[in-house]
Structure formats: C-alpha cells, structure tokens
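Example 3.2
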Amino acid sequence: MEHQEYNNLIYSKIILFGEYSMILDSKALMFPFRRFFAQWRYGNDKVADSSRKSILSLVEYLENDAELRELIDTKTIKYDLGQGLYLFSNIPSGYGLGSSGALVAALWQRYATKTIEDFLELKRVFGRMESFFHGSSSGIDPLQCYIGKPFVINSDGLHVLPDDFINSGIEIGLIDTKAKSETGPLVRHFREMLGNAAYKNSFESEYLPCLNRCMETISQGGNAFFDCLNRLTVLQNELFEPMITLDTRHLFDTQHDFHFGVKILGSGGGGFVLCFTDDKKMASNLLSGFDVIWL
C-alpha cells in the first residue's frame, strides 16, 4: 500500500470545558491550539530515534488488537520508520495538550486502511488506540487533533464551530504549573468517586449544568460568562480537589475585583491551568509569578 507524503500539521488541543464530563458522555467544548503541533519528518538523531521507539511500541499494541490491526497498516508504518520517518512533535507531554492524541491522529491520517466518516465512530476507534497510553481513553483528544477545528461534542454527535466563536472580549491563558500530569491515576480516582452517590449527584445536578452554561455563554462574554465560570471554579474546588496543584490553589478563588476565572485543563494534577479574563493587564499582574501563554 503506497502513501503520499503529508506536510500538513497535526495541532495540539485544548479542552475548554468538559475534561471529566465527557467520561459520562456529556458535552465537551474542544479547541485547536496551533502554537504546538506534530508533523511527519525524516531524520536520524536522538529525537527521531525516540519518536520511532514510541511509535513502534504503539504499533505492537495495535497489532495485538484484532480490530485495530485491520484498520491501521502497521506493516507500512514499520517499513517507513526503517527508512528514517519519525513524528516530530513540540507538544509538551503531560500538559493536557494532546501529545498522545496527536500521535494517534497522525497515524490514522497517514496509515488508516479505511475511511470513517462518522465522527462518533472515529472517536471510539481513536479511544481504543489511545488507551495504549492512558489505560482508557474517550478518544476525544485524537479526534480534535485530527479535525483541527473547534467543536462541541456529546453523545448525539459533533458540531464544528467557526474559529472565532469565542467572544472577542475574552482572553484565554495557559498557566504553567511546572509539573507533568498523569492522566490515568486521576481518571481512575474520578471514576471511583462516582461510586459515591452524593458525589455523583453533585456532579450531575450542579456541575454538569454549570459546565453547559459556560459553553453556551462563552460566545457572549461579560457577566453571563464570568458569573458562570466563577461558579464552575467553586465546584472544581469541591469536586476536583486532587486535580488542583498546591501552587495554583490560591487562583481558584472567585474574590477578584475584575473578571477572572480559572479551571483545570485536561486531567489536572499538573500541566497547564486555564484562565479566562476580559482584562489581560490585570490578569497578568495577578499571574506575575507564573509563566503564562496567552492564546
């Protein structure tokens, strides 16, 4: 099977809202972050060797899965790697930006043996592939990396959004916690907590409606969005305490004299923390002790 050369980039992703709710097939809002990307290249240095080693480990996993080995041309992957192909990526690992999702998306883009047009079915396949990295995966990260456009997704389907759907007055920043996040343990903890009836009730009756409201109002901005975001911040303090790093805990405070709010990104526990504001200068002063990347 011959493959064309792909020069297009696989971008990193941001889950603006829905990082844990998607486990229950609730709504999530995804956004491509084009500062970081992955791209197929040829080379023979330490970076290339490390990439090939990671890909070969994933290929072995795919070949041991009856469904996946029929969907991915692993024979050609191994041949191409032997010719010096590797996946260059500047997406930081353990930061909630989809480093493993980009690899899955890149493999599918180049080596899929069939076309899957149903996004929910593709999400399922991607989840099966990405489970190699996390033990279990919703598949939404690779799907975002593969599509490369913002979208809203739930159990009923996927709706692609225009690139400028966020209110122009809202500034979004990534606060670096300087710590890598391990998704697997935190997701397992969340699933265990859902076994507690009171916790599950609070999550479903309070957190999910608030989360959905944030997604609905992000195109409006102003009080409608930031009031909802502040409520979400309070609920994250209550429901996701282990996912909030000690050095950013003070930011999960809603007593600011300007519009500002934060939430965990990805699984939390490290990586980046998302912040939203309509006053970048005031927010920058508040965050002067952190490295911040503004979108």
